Amino acid sequence: MSRFFYFLFLISIVLTLDANGQTRIIDSLKKGLASSKTVEQKLQALFSLCEQRHSLNPETLYRYASKATEISTSLHNQKNISLSEYFMANYLLKKGNIDSALNICNRNILKLKNDVSSRQVMNDFMGCKAGILIKKNEYKEAMAQFYYILNDAEITRDTARQLTGENGIGWVYMEMDQNRNALDWFFKAVSTSNNEKYLQYLVYVYSNISANYNSLNKNDSAEYFINKSITLARKFENLSALANCLNIQADILIDTKRISQAENSLTEALQIRKLVADPFYIVSDMMQLAKFYAKTGQPVKGIALCQEGILMANKYNLSSKLLILYDALAENYKVAGNKMKYAQTLEQIISLKDSLYEKNSAEALADIQGKYNVQKQENIIIQQKLDLVNRNYLLFGSMALIFFGVIISSLLFRNYSRKQKMQLEMMRQEEKNMSFMAIPKAEENERKRIAADLHDNMGAYATAIIANVDDVVQQRNKKNETTLQHLKSNASEIMSHLRDTIWALNKERIPITGVSDRFKNYLQKISPVYPEVNIEIIENILDDIYLSPVQALNIFRILQESCTNALKHSHCTKIKVSISCNKAFNISIMDNGTGIDENNFQRGNGIRNMQSRALESGFSMTINGDKDGTRIVLST
């Protein structure tokens, strides 16, 4: 019976579309185009059709945009020519020609920069450019575009553009896995207006809120908002948005063990996506389906789908999708039990995250937001000045009094501005002086720390290598082979520690997920040496935090030392590592071994080093051991 109703449901969806994937709205607009009597009416009808780009097949969009360009050029209307090129850029974006679309956006933004009459078209180009930059993983630049749109919308009181800017900034934070910041911006967009004519913009806002809540494992909230988004997407017949919503819904249904319903949502989304044919979202669907295969025990299908998606992402320069595809690939390799491929994929994920961080540091994003806040305050001052002029006009009722009032106000404002600038300059100079004083001290401390770290880790292994070499020279017998093997092992350890140190020092800030990923990779490498020990790692990171290189390296070293002690000295058969983070992190390492001997606890260099590293980084560390095993807890 359920299959019969599902079949009727799919039929109802198909009946709303024609052979080219058009909606009833598009059908109505096509009739309007056919009945146009003048060239100007035909052009406006073409623009209305192009506005439905989210529901059009790329080739259909190209046909309408090309005709609009032809008519606009014949009418010598520069604004309409630019608008036609905007829709052509959207066509190129759908086809995966990202660089060509970006060139069109940059050319028109430069051309329209000082044209007040084309302000809205320029903002459209900036929104399109921001979407392209997100697809290229250039989040800092994308956020700058959305802040410009938001600032301009607040000046002109354009609610639609304001919603676009707020949702766009939240989108950037969401792509960077900064869920809390993203939700702040999305709810700001929801509260911007309660006018029903802006509901079509909330389709994307509600789906983004749902995706964020789903990432935070808040399934009830996620389901509530995705149902609101699906209702609006169907109402406004936005096919791309509907397909996105259905995929998010499927993810929620999978997490809540409603597998059959999830498959229905994925099937409907796939049918819609084939009609719209956008590579960026097709790759997202592949990732979604691959995760579905991993969770339903079909890793072979999931691995093949991920590999196909990675090829497509590289072909269409969709670098922003590579991280989620490799994440899904790692999940399928893990389910398949292929430890070697799983470890290799984790290495690739680390590399992608490192590259992403270099492009989009938190300091750079904060700088952009700071510029926006300054501009916003200036806008408030400007608005206050205009209000003052209006009040003077109503109060005095004569041009003469208004004239003198404006002069006096202008002088006062100029004097006030000069004082404000002087205070601001003094504050900036004071901050610079403090920075100049702090930098040499910080550099000196960092050099000392690096020297100590290299001495502690590299020095011991270098001494061992020298002793081994002396042994080889003095003893010309069968023991040489064993000695040489020790040389190789110690040399490998030196290189491993050196890589870890360089990994930390090459970055300004390191996310806790980066430390976790690197430690998982380390466990993958050492676990084959101890086949009798079951090593389990549990990760529950709800809100990623960023650490200094020193803190990140100290956490990594403490984890290494804890596991090494358990493996070598505790005679354990099981080690459980738990890493959790929600604004503050908590890490525990437990084994079921013989516990810690009190004398070794007092004398052991390893434990003293762990305590010293925790103290240096400002972390709390406790060590408890008894006959049932040892538990080490590290937290902020």
CATH topology of the domain at 507-635: Heat Shock Protein 90
Sheet with most strands: 5 strands, mixed
- Beta-strand segment tally: 7
Q: What is the mean pLDDT?
A: 81
CATH homologous superfamily (4th level) name of the domain at 507-635: Histidine kinase-like ATPase, C-terminal domain
Contiguous low-pLDDT stretches (5 residues minimum) are 1-21
- Kindly name the structural category: alpha+beta
As laid out across the biggest beta sheet, the strand order is 2-4-5-7-6
- Approximately how much helix is present in the residues? over 70%
Strand content: 5-15%
Using the 3D structure, state the CATH architecture of the domain at 507-635. Answer: 2-Layer Sandwich
What's the number of helices? 25
Please compute the radius of gyration using only Cα atoms: 30 Å
Instruction: Please give the CATH class of the domain at 507-635.
Output: Alpha Beta
Brief characterization of the structure:
With 636 residues, this protein is an alpha+beta fold. Among the domains are: 83 residues, Serine Threonine Protein Phosphatase 5, Tetratricopeptide repeat, CATH 1.25.40.10; 129 residues, Histidine kinase-like ATPase, C-terminal domain (Heat Shock Protein 90, 2-Layer Sandwich).
